[in-house]
Structures are given as structure tokens and as C-alpha cells.
Amino acid sequence: MNIAVLVKQVPNTTEIKVDKETGALIRKGIPTIINPDDLSAVEVALKLKATHGGKVHVFTMGPKSAESMLRELYARGVDDATLLCDKAFAGSDTWSTSLVLSTALKRHRFDLVIAGRQAIDGDTAQVGPQVAEFLGIPHISYVDEIRGVDATHCFLRKKEEKQSMHLKCPFPLLITVLDGIAKPRYMNMTHIFNNASRDVEILDNDALAIEKADLGIKGSPTKVKKTYAKSITKKTTAESLAPEDAAERILAVLREKGGMPDAL
User: Model's pTM, two decimal places?
Assistant: First the structure.
């Protein structure tokens, strides 16, 4: 089976700075990592490939520096990698990003598209479902287990807050997965040597031919009205207590805040 995985390079820090004019994150000079949910998605794809054959093709939209992330994924075992890179894409919201990704995916044929549930720098969880809508295929979010696949269907479990759903869905299909679905493997030394000279496909908008009015900040229907850092109003008091005293202290605070009845 042929599998596409959507990945994103995200800031490896909690010290995020925001452009006051655009509301976008300032990424220059900040170390980056592969989004954790997406890395789990790659591992799911590699396990399916090992069992059922086929290829794993990863896609990302980002700056030229994201090429190094894709080469790291080569070292983990993916077969192909595509970087969608154009100044016209800069500042795109989830709708515009999903348009770019889906346009690139339409150049190929995939049985399954996998994405992480959400990116840690945006937390919207919108890109996966929006890509599926652009592609016109079913999508299932919050998947925490692939129970099996056959020639035409995928059997999986979708996690809800207090229950799980066991579903059967036909291919082609897009799913978003939780980060606990699979533990990502380490890079393989053989893959590192064998893929050192491999090319990453880089596509700009000349190749995708998307209307420029639908790209970047101007083409994004989501407008950030205001972005600000949460102010700290009170410092936390640290106390060192014996376990039994700590329990009593916690109960006292909960009662004071109205979160615990006077009598248990």
C-alpha cells in the first residue's frame, strides 16, 4: 500500500515570540524539531509498510531549512520526501496550508494519508481534516490504534474522551493519530549512509499552479485579532512537608478554593 504522511517542522522551545503586526510566530533563530504527533504518524506508516509492503512518502510545507528534517526521515526508513517551499506560502493559515498540501498530494495516488493530530506550535488540529476535504476523501481523527487493513479497508480505533470507537473505513482515507499510537524508531545507520546523497523533491508554486490570491497571509481567511502572553499574577509558594502533612495542606487549599467538601 502507498502511504503519504504529513509532517511539520516546529520550534523546539516554549519561548515563543509573536509578530505583533501579523500575529504569526517568529521562527528565525529558534531550534526546530519534527512535530511529535507527526513523528508517531511516520512510525505508523513504516510499520504498515513492513507488514503490507508499498512505500511511504512524506510531505511538508516550510522553508528550505526543513529539508534537513526530511533527510532525517530518510534515515528512519521513508522512501520519498517532498518539500513545498515558496515565499508565496509564508504566513498561510490552516486553510491555505491544507490547500497547498492537498494540491501536492493530488500529483500522486495514495491509499492512506496519515497526519499527526495537531502541531505543538498551533494546536488547531485542523490541517489533517481540511486536507481530506480538499481531496474529497473520508477522514477519521484521534486514531490511537490501527487494528488491521485489507485490500480495500482500514480497521482502526478512534479515541473519545470517555470511550473508544471501532471503525471500518474504505480506502482512500486520511487519519490523524495521537502521539502515543507508536513509539518512533531511531535513525538507522545503514539508512543514514545509503540516503546521504538522496534528493528531496522541492516544489514551488510554479509547479503547483495555485492561485496566489489563495496563498500566504492575504489568502488566509483566518485573521489573528490579537496575540499576547499570559500575564503572571501570583507566584506559587513552594512548601516542603511530610506526606501526611502535605495531604492535609492540599485538602485545606482545595476547601479554601471551593473544590472540596468540608467532610469526605
Answer: 0.78
